[in-house]
Design goal:
Length: about 260
Amino acid sequence: MQSEFSFKETWLHQINPSLKLIVMILLFVAVLLIHNINFIINFTIVTFILFIAFTGHPVKRIMLLSLPFLLVFISTASTMILFGKGEITWFKWGLIHITEESFFRGMHIGFRAIIFAALGLTFALTTRPVFLFYSLMQQLKLPPKYAYSFMAGMRLIPIMMEEFQTIRQAMKVRGVESRKGIKAFFQKFITYSIPLLSQSIRRAHRIAVAMEAKRFSQVKKRTYYYAIAFSRIDILFLSYFVIMLFVGYYIAIIYPYFSITDIRF
């Protein structure tokens, strides 16, 4: 969730991770309930201001991360625009039928996709996994056994990727030929999966023994290495979305970009 690239820590990194997660989920739900094309455009602007200006990453890196989601925006919007239904026809040629209704519906779906991407990347780029799970244990009372299991699993993923590369290089050194076909695919799957699975089981057992040796228990009252709490910055985070979305809705009603207010009709 947190890359190894250098970045500048901003106020978004200091927000309580549990609060940030809940707010993001609520925003995802809110986006699904918005059918005003003018408001969804303003929602996109509000989200991208936060994403570009306050994640602490260089603009080039942000644009590079956004490129796949820009392609998703183009593909989802163009599919609805080119093959949608409607009464006011703008262009028709063969299977392609562009109408006023399909255009706005396609743009609306595209903006939804880009908002999901921007919110998700904002959360991923500004949230440390360890702090997230500690916050879930302290604020949302997530059982420690689940939290530590997730943290251990995330730590093991890079190790498994490194072991996969080691096995792959070892097979090349030994002259194992790369074959094609379904049978060869299953043979490769078995060749890679068995050693990776066995090593993961051994490593998980060692982690369990180490945690037990360090007196890990599931008691409700426990101490934490990281104490995660709420702060004034959390209020600033909530205020940003409340104020900016209210202003965005006001502008969408008073100064709309388009006359259409509901893309469903």
